[in-house]
Amino acid sequence: MSAGSSNELAPLTLDSACITELQQALERVESGRGVLVRLADLMGGAVGQAAMLGMRTLGLAPALQARLQATAETAIRRAFDLAVVGMDRPRDVSATPDDGAAWRDPALKAAVTVSGAVGGFTGLPGLMADVSFTTLTIMREIARIAREQGEDLSQEEARAACLEVFALRAFPFGASKGQGEDNELGYFSARAMLRGRPVVMLVSEVATHYGLGLSRKFALQMMPVAGALCGASLNVAFLSHYRAVAQAHFTIRRLEREYGPEVRRTAIDLKAHAAAQMRES
Length: 281
Fold this sequence. Notes:
72% of the residues lie in helices and 0% in strands. It contains twelve helices and no strands. The protein has helices at 16-31, 35-43, 45-57, 62-82, 101-122, 124-148, 156-164, 181-184, 186-194, 199-221, 228-259, 262-280. The longest helix is centred in the last third of the chain and has 32 residues, at 228-259. The radius of gyration is 19 Å and the shape is globular.
């Protein structure tokens, strides 16, 4: 639904520009598919098929899985402590243009690509260093996006919201057959489950989600066909995925600071409207 058709909804507190922002945020989370699925899209052909096969069949020994889980938790804890350095106060992007925006994206993608390629080529030792670097890079980007959306990262609640990005999963925009409201609004449900947890518990929870992705990443990198190429492609996919989720997450939080619970009610109406359009088409 576009802003121009927002008047087809029940009267809302949000103006049409904010409704469009909310819609785009919801769609951005939908488009942020899992990084392992995106890997096959990025690589294509025989390697893509091998990657998809590896996602279904490759397993890791329990001891190695535990080690990767511990690595994920350590990387996230360190990144959490370091990522907000120099970002203590919210930044008004409308008042101060970001001169680094033009080079930031290609520079970051190049950095995580090199890190992933080296990690994929050198095996487990390289993976550990790659995970630390890439996780810090991702967390720093999440913190930057949070600050640009008006978050005060000197506050623990705002910093915890950066961690939440790692635990949020994609959810469908619009209703599909057999889905209830909890599935349709999975983003809000996931946030409710994470809200209020101490940072120590939140790090552990986030590491569980993130560690699963790392385990599969490592399994794919061990495939003879993929190797360093998998590591490089996965890192770019991880960065793009979490950056897109962060942009959506902190856009919605900014709207909630202004409009409160009306944002969730608007999301429900947007989804109902999208579902009605799907049934009519």
